[in-house]
Amino acid sequence: MADVRLASAQGRWILLTTVLGSSMAMVDSTVVNVALPRMGRDLDTDLAALQWTVNAYMLTLAGLILLGGALGDRFGRRRIFVLGVVWFASASLLCGIAPDAAVLIAARALQGVGGALLTPGSLALIQASFHPDDRARAVGLWSGFGGIGAAVGPFLGGWLVDGPGWRWVFLLNVPLALLCVPIALRHVPESGDGRAHGRGFDVLGAALGALSLAFVTYALIEATTGAVPVAVTAVAGVAAGVAFVRVERRRADPMMPPEIFASRLFTAVNVVTLFVYAAFSGFFFLAALQLQVVSGYSALAAGTALLPITVLMLLLSSHAGALGERVGPRIPLTVGPVLCAVGVLLMLRVGPGASYPTDVLPALLVLGLGMVTLVAPLTATVLASVSTEHAGLASGINNAAARAAGLVAVAALPLVAGMGPEAFRDPVQFDDAFSTAMPVCAVLLLAAAALAFTTVRRPPADCQHPECRTHASMTAPPLEGEPGGTAHSGE
């Protein structure tokens, strides 16, 4: 039974452990984009390798995050969390010493595996360990401190890239893990879900889903070569996706139960998520490069430049969630993407010699306000669209969908914008492609707004409500409950 009080010494240790673990993954996801130009020059590689540096991580994370939650339920949440931290740190070390782009990409894929183990585990440990009277406050502190980590990430990453070098973006995770693991083993109680024992794991479903994403991503990134392997992998990606759907329909205990999509609201909100997070991921991938390659910003200046978005989300996301509960999700999920589209289009003013106060900051403030408006209501609607016992699973699916959308966007957007392999070395070519890519992101956001306006309705009053009131991650919606199983199981 969960009975640890937040005010106790053990409660503070548990909170510290989970914040350290989740911050490793959150900070890493925000700083890598800032380091990409320096990685490309130091490793003498092309744009495709930079895309894979981002996507290899998102591929394994998106494909395995639901399985990671189920493993924690079955084998113990602390055990899987600690394994994830150790795995993530080991892969980070390999990233930091990678001699070439191929090793770096492989290590990033391994990082994603570690992230899939520790990300759902950090929140599940809080929900399983704390007394019910303290759980909401513990989750609030966890998400708030995680938001601070997300805010510090781009600044820290830029400082590291300009100072000791981009390799320290990854090496920094090692001492964090050395601090996190002993605390977890000493102070965090083990917990699991007794109902999970005897359940099978949908390893085949997870593998097919990841293979489908991998093949499609490869085909999009390498499409400009026109080679036969590109067409073959594209067909293989579609075939793996079809096989994934068939497996999920036939399994007794699937990773992604098809019946959960019987809720029209759940399906609609997930499609909105796909459009929104495809636009966000494409934007943040290209914006960090635009500021450095075209506008001449240092890595530190580029990382710091993006800070207003995170700060706005950190300060205002809980208020946006409360507003969404009062007015219903339809208005925030319509207005939010429209504001984001305006912010993205304002980035067209950012070119050579761009002024931060007059060119960059207005765009980021509008984009940040749009993200604040939509992210919390989106999560609340996902939870409200299914029965309470499926809320955790619904959140996990929504989180995975956002990451999958980002994966495809980072692969496809440079292709759509006409970026060549050496575009990030040529300011003129990159600026032209950026001017094409931003309207594409805006169209995705406007499509999300239109879909939300026509399909999203107010959920029932007695539905599940989010516990994560503060959220500052720009890569995916917050996880709620236990993505491998139920919403809130008490131990």
UniProtKB/TrEMBL annotation:
The keyword tRNA processing does not apply. It comes from the Bacteria. Keywords: Antibiotic resistance, Cell membrane, Membrane, Transmembrane, Transmembrane helix, Transport. Residues 14-460 form the Major facilitator superfamily (MFS) profile domain. The chain crosses the membrane at residues 12-36, 48-68, 80-99, 105-126, 138-160, 166-188, 200-221, 227-245, 265-288, 294-315, 327-348, 360-384, 396-417, 437-456. InterPro entries: EmrB-like, MFS, MFS_dom, MFS_trans_sf. Its main location: membrane. Residues 460-491 are annotated as: Disordered. It is a multi-pass membrane protein. It is found in: Cell membrane. PANTHER family: EXPORT PROTEIN (PTHR42718:SF42), MAJOR FACILITATOR SUPERFAMILY MULTIDRUG TRANSPORTER MFSC (PTHR42718). This is MFS transporter. It comes from Streptomyces heilongjiangensis.
